[in-house]
Amino acid sequence: MKEKWISSIIAGAYIAMGAMVYLSIPDKIIASFFFSTGILLVLNLHNRLFTRVCPLAAYDRSYRFSDMAIAWIGNGIGTLIVAVLIHFTRFEAGILERVKEIVTPKIGDSPVSLILLGIFCGLFVAFAVFVGGIRQKQGSFAQIFYVWLFITAFVFCGFEHIVADMYYLSVYAFNFPIAPDQILKVLFCVTIGNIIGGAAVGYSIRRLDTSAK
């Protein structure tokens, strides 16, 4: 049980670090490309990222609901730890405008929009998990290419990733006024969307693999 929590917290920290790189690069295309570093760390080191656990739970039931809950909470703790540490450095001042630009549309968005954007993100991350993380040799060029392709695509499109949002919201809350219900709306809706998108891909691939045998 302790290992599950540690793995989940570390996964959240990895995504937060990828988000930090993303926030540090002015050009959106290049920034989207480098956000993938966090996902690559998760896939290669087999950490429990919520958006990795969801599609795998639907695919082969290797994860249960309790694993999803631990991953979600642990990922949130990991992003919060990074946000707290960064709050006491000069690095934070350089990303605040970007954070404000990213978070303001989220907290003003409708629940339906957040869920749908979360679904699309869940689809892309699940594609990265299966096409890049499972179907390719670990550390191979093909794995790196496919992961970068799918992750860069969803980040560039502005789709909603719950763990990245946890980090953005944490940094925002430390520096700008935000109501608890606004935070909860984003977290709840994006979580639902990520679950639906990831589970849809995992279930579909399981059915295809079964019919191919």
Automatic annotation (TrEMBL):
Domain of life per record: Bacteria
Keywords: Membrane, Transmembrane, Transmembrane helix
Topology versus the membrane: Multi-pass membrane protein
Regions crossing the membrane: 5-23, 29-47, 68-91, 111-132, 144-163, 183-205
An example molecular function term from Gene Ontology annotations: formate transmembrane transporter activity
Location of the protein in the cell: Membrane
GO cellular component terms given for this protein: plasma membrane
A Pfam match: Form_Nir_trans
Family, similarity comment: Belongs to the FNT transporter (TC 1.A.16) family.
Name of the protein in question: Formate/nitrite transporter family protein
Organism from which the protein derives: Sellimonas catena
